[in-house]
Structures are given as C-alpha cells and as structure tokens.
Design brief:
By secondary structure, this protein is an alpha/beta fold. It contains 7 helices and 6 strands; from the N terminus they run αβββαβαββαααα. Strands 1-2-3-4-5-6 form a 6-stranded mixed sheet, sandwiched between helices. Helix 1 (4-17) crosses helix 4 (147-165), helix 2 crosses helix 3 (102-115) and helix 5 (197-205) runs parallel beside helix 7 (237-267).
C-alpha cells in the first residue's frame, strides 16, 4: 500500500494534466487549518488533506475543516454569494492510509451534511480517498440544491483517483469491518417552498420584468436565494424569514444604488 504523500504527489500530477493550477500547503485564512494541496480550475476548487498527518484522524473535526475550506474559497470572490451568476464548486478531499469503516463514514456523512449551508452561491462536496481499499467514497449526502453538480464533481474525483490506482480499485471493495462503504444518500425530492416565501420570491422576480441585464440578473439572483433559504427547513422559521427580508432589501437597494451611480455618470 502506498503512503498518503506518495499518493498526493501522483494526484498533483493528475490534476495538473487536467489543467488545474496546484499548490502545496495552502493556509485557509484565520482558521489555522492548512490544506496539503489546493487545486483550482475556473470555478472548481479542490482542497486536499492528509487525514492522519495533517488532521490527526480527527473525524469530529472534519465538518469544521470542510466549513473552513468553503469560507476560505468564498473569501476569494468579490461578488456576494447571493448575486453570483456562476457558483463556486468546492470539493474537500480527505486521504487516508488507515482502515476506514462504514460506521466512521456514517458519522462524518451526518456531521458534514448538517454543517453545510445549502444556499448562497456555492456547491460543496466532501470525499474520502481510501488507499487501502483503493476507492473513493462520499463524506456528504447529495443535497436537493445543486445535487447534480455535486454528484458530477464527486465522479470526476473518483475517476482521477482511479487513474492512480489503475484497475485495482473497483469501488466494490469490502472495508476492514466487512461492511462496504455506502453510496451517498439521496435527500428527499424538494417540496414547494412555503407559502410565505412567494412574497419575497415575486418581489425579487419583479425586477426581471424591467428588462436589461442588470435588473434581470439581480432579480433572478434574489428570487433564487429566497427560494433556497425558504426550502431549508432544518433552519428556524424566523431566521429564514429574516434572511429573505435581507436578501430582498439587499437586491433592491443595490439596484437603486447602481442606477443612481449610472445616472450621475450620464449626467456628467
């Protein structure tokens, strides 16, 4: 069995051949966490960690690592999440050379899924690469929002790992406790948003009727953000309403502010 460092060296070569820009030892802002490798291609971001040497096998801390990775990537963008036309895809990858069981996977799946925010300009995913079994396995559930993109990037990571493993990793290998690592759990299909949310969705969407790229973009971004916030029934009702109020006010204030500036420029 190869070591994690050997795998990371080969993985770096694979990523570079796929036109990723790769660098070692990327500090994640003020979190105190450092990714062993950071790779970026357009709006796709990989943050890769040695589970033993870097993270000391701390499964309870993986949600915080995933959250710190998302926060750091988000800090690289100047446009607020709710106003982005193209969302960032963030992939955390945890590489282990030690036995990893189905029980451990379930523990991390639940924790990272609960820690993740479903709304706001990004799609994130987490994957384990198990060097003993030579497979990749999910560490986050497939969420209703952005599930297709989430599944796609997970499959790309699996294919990239298999280019290193060769034909040895079938994806059906049994883990050390004789329980195979699970596929990602599909979340229930999205229901219609609550009735109260349509007030905010329509109020933001009204901008689209004005025509033009600016109002259409702001209106679509605001309506989509309110829709996603309202759908996240894991959050308190009051908090969701307050967020929708903030999003709606934000897009309208931004619209009038930009319009005012443009009028001033044209007047001069």
């Amino acid at each position: 069995m190869e070591t994690v460092q050997n795998f990371l060296t080969q993985f770096r070569t694979v990523l570079q051949s796929d036109n990723f820009e790769v660098q070692q030892g990327q500090s994640l802002g003020d979190s105190g966490i450092t990714a062993d490798l950071y790779a970026c291609r357009k709006k796709v971001h990989y943050l890769i960690f040695d589970l033993q040497q870097n993270l000391k096998n701390d499964l309870a801390g993986l949600p915080e690592v995933h959250r710190a990775a998302c926060k750091w990537v988000d800090s690289q963008y100047k446009i607020p999440k709710s106003l982005r036309f193209q969302v960032a895809t963030i992939q955390t990858i945890f590489v282990t050379a030690e036995p990893f069981t189905r029980k451990m996977q379930d523990e991390v799946l639940s924790a990272i899924t609960q820690a993740d925010s479903q709304w706001g300009g990004e799609i994130s995913n987490a994957t384990l690469i198990d060097l003993q079994q030579q497979i990749s396995a999910p560490l986050k559930d497939i969420l209703p929002v952005g599930g297709r993109a989430q599944s796609k990037v997970a499959m790309i990571v699996k294919e990239q790992a298999q280019r290193i493993f060769g034909n040895a990793g079938s994806g059906d290998v049994i883990s050390p406790d004789n329980i195979d690592l699970a596929l990602p759990r599909e979340q229930p299909k999205m229901k219609w948003p609550p009735s109260w949310s349509w007030f905010f969705i329509v109020l933001c969407g009204a901008m689209i009727g004005m025509g033009g790229a600016l109002p259409s973009g702001l209106g679509m971004a605001g309506a989509a953000s309110c829709y996603q916030v309202a759908q996240d029934r894991t959050k308190p009702l009051t908090g969701r309403i307050v967020k929708c109020v903030g999003i709606t006010l934000g897009v309208w204030v931004l619209f009038f502010a930009i319009g005012f500036v443009l009028l001033q420029l044209l007047a001069n």
